Each structure stands twice: as structure tokens, then as C-alpha cells.
Amino acid sequence: MGPTRFEEYSEKYKDLFLMTRSGGILEVRMHTHGGPLQFDWPVQTAYGHVWSDIGRDPENEVMILTGTGELWQIGNPEVWTTKFMDWPNSRKVEMYHESLRMIENMIYCIGIPTIGVINGTGSHWQLGTLCDITICAEGTAFFDAHYLGGVPPGDGIVLALQKILGIKKAAFYAYTGMNINAETALDLGLVSEVLPHEQLLPRARELAEMIMQAPRSTRHLAHSIVSHPWKEALANNQGFQLTHQLYDMAIDEEGIFERLNRIKERFQRNGR
């Protein structure tokens, strides 16, 4: 399979990912109708494809990933209206593969330096922390509500917490669902910098331009070095964690939707 063309994939994904590129620096902004990205199953599927296409374009040299407005992305409990145990078996298998590709393709397919610009609270924030450098807006809250919603936390958030914070802190935040505010996230090493919202993209572009000063081979091989721990973590643990989550969902008679409704006020407060 040969290189992909920016003109083609930027058009293909424009309803979910708005892309601009200048001097090899690719900016990818997640959105739904010009507002924060609203997560659903087509979005999950698109993630794996967009990472693959971006990674196969040799004109991309640095990627900046961000959201729209003041939220990273919005979770949608409505996707769980049909209990997972009632899904067709073939769709359950597809869900497994799409959930893996959403994260793995970002790490395995993109071979250039990446900057995550987490512009606010939202779901699937692990994608921003998987980037080589991660900056976030003041007021951002990070948390994992899986366990509070009666689901084992296997979608990659706890994996990110384990890798960055360590196993004890990760376990604490997994069980309690407690918020990690931006300042604490900086202290814990979850993010690299905390900035006012209006300074995020200018700072990301400044960092990208700095990265671009090195020779191309240096950029690519440096990314390979700094992202290798994620490759090891994903290879060793992500399939294991995701399988545990999906197995529990497959035998869950009550269903996620009912439990999420009981804690929906927290989701609404935090843009989840």
C-alpha cells in the first residue's frame, strides 16, 4: 500500500477531523458540526483509519492533535441503549478490533513526533497523553468513570495511568473515579505543561517548529525512541485489559446505560 495524499484523507474525514498542514506540521482538530467531538461508534471506527492514513503520508512531519472549543470530546451514553450482551456476536468482535485500533494505530502507524493539545475535559483523553508531548488547558479535569459505571476499565485510560503515574496511583484513580485537575496532572507527569486556553495552540505550534529544526531522520528516530514504551505497554497489556472489559460487558444483564444515567450529572459537569 502506497503513500496517502493529504487532499484525499483530509476531505474524507472532514466531518470528524479538520486538518490543516503547513511546512510539514499537521494540525488535527476533532469536532462534530464545528463543536466538541461527540463520540459514537462511527467515530471509534474512524480513529483507526485516520491514524493509518496520516501515518502513510510522508509529507507529515509533526502532528498536533486537539479538540474544539473548551471540551476535548463528549461522551454519549446513548450508544449503550442496547445492552452489549444483546449485540450480535459479529459486532462484538468488530468492537474489540475497533477499540484496539483506536489506540494502537495511533502508536504503531504514526512515525512522527506528536503533540497532544488537550483543550478541556472530555472522554478518551488517553489519546492526548499517548502523544510525545502533552499540554492541557487550565481547568481541565482527567478522570475515568468506568468502574463507577460498573465496567472494568479496559479502554486504555487505566493503561495510560499505570504507565505514567504508576500502579498504585492508577489503581486509586481507577477505583474512585476521582478527578485529576490540571495542576495535579502536571505534578504527576500526566501532562507536560498547563496553559490558559488561548495559549495552547500557539505553544503547540512553537514546540512543533522547534522539533522541525532537527534533521528529518533525527525527528523520526527520536519519536521511535520516545514512543517505544507505549508500544511495549500496548503489546503487553491493552488486549488483555480490553478483553476483560468486553467480557464483563457481554455478561452484564443490567446494561451500562442504566448505570450511566445514575451518575449522569457528573458526566454533564465534566463534559463527558
From TrEMBL:
Domain of life from the UniProt record: Bacteria
Molecular function GO terms recorded: catalytic activity
SUPFAM superfamilies noted in UniProt: ClpP/crotonase
Family annotation (InterPro entries): ClpP/crotonase-like_dom_sf (IPR029045), Enoyl-CoA_hydra/iso (IPR001753)
Pfam families cross-referenced by the UniProt entry: ECH_1
Family that this chain belongs to: Belongs to the enoyl-CoA hydratase/isomerase family.
PANTHER family with a match to the protein in the record: ENOYL-COA HYDRATASE (PTHR43802), IP11341P-RELATED (PTHR43802:SF1)
Name of the protein in its database record: Crotonase
Native source species: Paenibacillus graminis
